[in-house]
Amino acid sequence: MTKMNESAKQILALLPGVDCGGFGGCGHPSCQACAIAIAEGGSVALCPACDSGAVAAIAEIMGVEPVEVEDKVAFVRCAGTAAAPERFVVCKSCDEAKKAGVQEGECKYGCLGVGTCIERCKFDAMKLENGRLLIDREKCSGCEACLSGCVQSIIEMIPREATNFIPCSSKSDEKETLATCGYGCIGCGDCAMSCPKDAIEMVMGNNVAGRYAKIDYSICEGCVTCTVKCRKKIIVDTLHDLTQAKEEVALVRCVGGALGSRKLKKMGLETCADVATVDLDGNDICEYSCAGLGDCVKVCRYDAITNEMGVAQVDPDKCVGCGDCMRACPRDKIIMVPYKGVKQTACTSKADPERRLEVCGVGCIGCGDCADNCPSGAITMIDGNPFIDHEKCVNCGVCTYVCSRKLIAERVVPEYNYLQMDAIKIDDQEERKW
Fold it and tell me: What is the end-to-end Cα distance of the chain in Å, rounded?
């Protein structure tokens, strides 16, 4: 190796000093070799782990103009657990795991969870936790050593100051993505279409049905629009509160179910999906009620749903509107409703009034008093249940007064914050009428 001259020694003192084993972005086997290369005329920004201050100091040593550099950190475009943690635990490298292959129900585009990248990180910035690869942004130097260790090519360098992240690189179609990962991008493109700066691109691979969203950080301004518009609510936003930045929340269209839920359990049914396969006719159970066995609770990533007295209950303050619970409910008892203080009716029974009274003491009996007395004609009875047109509703309160079952309820929500108003184009004066 070429001997170090005085300039190389001074440059070496400015480098991180933790050799990346030849895997770093500089392309040299050691910091010493990198320092010599710079001293011999290489780029003063050859080491990607050097911040702007170090690069400016190196430029001064070399007697050249400083170059502008962007401080970057590694980011994993996967938020799920390892594809097959039980099977891959015996693998010695991610390359070996990839050769072993993934099976049906496992994501073939996500993190393999073996940790080859962790071995290459000399700054202790990476770790596996419950099958997920996590990066400590404070410890990450931006050396890029982890990039070459990722056989899935899901690690990228992003600006350290970035605030919005899309942690998925799956190119599977929507059906496969939903089946393999609750955190996966379904490629709907809503984020890209709504971005005011066109900073999001939908990336598609060759000969695949799916695509995923990718942010161009040279354009992104870190606004809340993509976070609000994301159907799956997987876009990470470190500036804004996702529980407030939302257009819709889930509503369970059932207010009773305790008796029915207990009977279903006695019948040996363990999941809502099991109930959907059974003919309940002849049983003293409401055929239209929430089964209360928790399929929706299991898939909720935000702890927004609980089972209370045999029926699922949604906490609208915790709900982010991702719709995972709606997709998990085999009986279609969950719908998405506007995140406003609007009135809702939580019953979908189509049975005759006598049958409803037999199986449920709190559900709608289809009397129609609410519709008959609504002064704005906002309520229509369909299959014996009131449906409210929120465009016509003037929030007068008559329906809640005349409902003998006290079934019609008004959701009380906190004031929209200005970020959400701006993102979903809600006029402040228009909003205040609610």
Answer: 74
pLDDT tens figures, 83-96: 877 888 889 999 99
Neighbouring-strand partners of residue 311: 308
Which class in CATH covers the domain with range 247-340? alpha beta
Q: For the full predicted model, state whether its pTM sits above 0.70.
A: yes
248-271 pLDDT tens trace: 889 998 887 777 788 888 888 889
* Least confident span in 75-79, 276-280, 350-354: 276-280
Q: Kindly list the domain boundaries of the chain, sorted by start residue.
A: 6-62, 71-161, 163-240, 247-340
CATH fold label, 6-62? 3-methyladenine DNA Glycosylase II; Chain A, domain 3 (1.10.15)
State the Cα angle at 10 between 7 and 14, rounded to 5°: 135
The domains spanning 71-161 and 247-340 adopt the same CATH topology: yes
Nearest CA to 49 out of 66, 26, 67 is that of 26
Q: How far, in Å, are 6, 9, 27, 74 from residue 138 at the CA level?
A: 32, 27, 24, 11
**Reported CATH class of domain 71-161:** alpha beta
CA max distance for the chain: 96
Contacts of 19 (CB under 8 A, 6+ apart): 29, 30, 31, 122
- Residue 422, phi then psi, degrees to nearest 5: -65, -40
pLDDT, tens only, 171-222: 888 888 888 888 889 999 999 998 989 999 998 865 556 788 999 999 998 8
Rg, Å, the chain Cα set: 28
CATH code that applies to domain 163-240 = 3.30.70
